[in-house]
């Protein structure tokens, strides 16, 4: 009788074992679970992006701006909004753009995660909503989205010479004219000669001595970035930047490093590809062409789960704006933007916008 009952016993044991495996596997194998949380970039999306980038680099690289025949052309700033939620601070940004007094000095491009529904005030209706794909934190999809924004901006207007990437949690700290003048000089004197210069500097944080550098380097596994990216060439920095057009084109042409940075991560706690790819690429390709600091102020003093300090309504004041503007380094510059702000900050920010934020 014992032999005949053995298959039933074995089957029951196997069933119970599988049950407990499925029940406790997420706790036992967190890296495996985390890998499945990362959205993959499909081959079709990759091909679509490559076609877009090729068109942008062809147009942007061959544009003869000085011979376009435009009367008194002005260089422009392309503001690139990368978001996966509503643009809560759209009213504040509207005042920022209105403070320019000249709508011909900027363009606005928006990449909205397809799963997100956003409200569209009148000024945002006129913005350029680029064809978007799904994005997620700790995945290379954010790199793709930033590149997609730059490509669309280059194709749309050859006079876009700076590309400022911001998020739904970012706010301006100065008037538009302050930002524009800091990048290009006085709008009344910006001329064709400036449009044809090739040495514009990019403003992006590039760090080589961060305490978490090694963990981020091996987030995809030991040796995963080799041989293209040795450890001494790996850099980290802020996700948000202001890139000159020559560097935006460089980013869109690049393929070798992208093949490494789009690999899935094994350690999501140390994996932020969008904070690694751009600083590493620009540091390797043109180390003297960037400022190595960002123009977006972030408060990391009490970060939680990789997120910076989130400002709330009670913290908003003229003193905060003045503090956020100041550089926290020995370099003499002023921050243009700041993050991260909760939706309840909109009302007090609007109340001080004209008298404080846009009064430089």
- What is the CATH-assigned architecture of the domain at 41-62 and 71-297? Alpha-Beta Complex
As a percent range, the share of helical residues equals: 40-55%
Report the CATH topology name of the domain at 41-62 and 71-297: Spore Coat Polysaccharide Biosynthesis Protein SpsA, Chain A
Gross morphology is globular
Give the helix/strand class: alpha/beta
Mean pLDDT: 87
How many beta strands in the DSSP annotation?
10
Distance between the termini: 92 Å
| Largest sheet strand order | 3-2-1-4-7
CATH secondary-structure class of the domain at 41-62 and 71-297? Alpha Beta
Subcellular location: Membrane
Membrane topology: Single-pass type II membrane protein
Main location: membrane
Keywords: Glycoprotein, Glycosyltransferase, Membrane, Transferase, Transmembrane, Transmembrane helix
């Amino acid at each position: 009788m014992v032999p005949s009952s053995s298959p039933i016993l074995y089957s029951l044991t196997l069933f119970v074992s599988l049950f407990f495996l499925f029940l406790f596997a997420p706790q036992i194998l967190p890296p495996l679970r985390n890998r499945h949380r990362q959205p993959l970039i499909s081959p079709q999306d990759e091909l679509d992006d490559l076609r877009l980038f090729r068109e942008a680099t062809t147009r942007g690289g061959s544009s003869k701006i000085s011979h376009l025949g435009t009367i008194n052309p002005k260089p422009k700033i392309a503001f690139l909004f990368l978001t996966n939620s509503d643009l809560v601070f759209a009213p504040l940004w509207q005042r920022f753009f209105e403070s320019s007094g000249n709508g011909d000095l900027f363009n606005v491009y928006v990449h909205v995660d397809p799963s997100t529904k956003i409200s569209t005030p009148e000024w945002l209706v006129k913005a350029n909503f680029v064809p978007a794909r799904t994005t997620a934190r700790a995945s290379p999809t954010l790199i793709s989205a930033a590149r997609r924004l730059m490509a669309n901006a280059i194709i749309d207007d050859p006079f876009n010479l700076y590309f400022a990437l911001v998020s739904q949690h970012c706010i301006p700290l100065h008037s538009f004219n302050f930002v524009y003048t800091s990048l290009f000089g006085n709008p009344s004197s910006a001329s064709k000669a400036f449009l044809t210069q090739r040495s514009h500097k990019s403003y992006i944080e590039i760090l080589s001595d961060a305490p978490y550098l090694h963990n981020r380097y091996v987030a995809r596994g030991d040796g995963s970035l080799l041989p293209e990216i040795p450890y001494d060439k790996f850099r980290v920095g802020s996700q948000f930047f202001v890139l000159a057009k020559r560097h935006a084109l460089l980013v869109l042409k690049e393929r070798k490093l992208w093949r490494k940075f789009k690999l899935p991560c094994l350690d999501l706690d140390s994996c932020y590809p969008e904070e690694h790819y751009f600083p590493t690429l620009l540091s390797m390709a043109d180390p003297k062409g960037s400022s190595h600091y960002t123009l977006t102020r972030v408060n990391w003093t009490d970060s939680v789960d990789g997120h910076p300090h989130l400002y709330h309504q009670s913290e908003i004041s003229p003193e905060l704006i003045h503090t956020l503007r100041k550089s926290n380094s020995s370099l003499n510059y002023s921050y243009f933007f700041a993050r991260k702000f909760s939706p309840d900050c909109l009302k007090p920010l609007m109340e001080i916008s004209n008298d404080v934020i846009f009064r430089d």
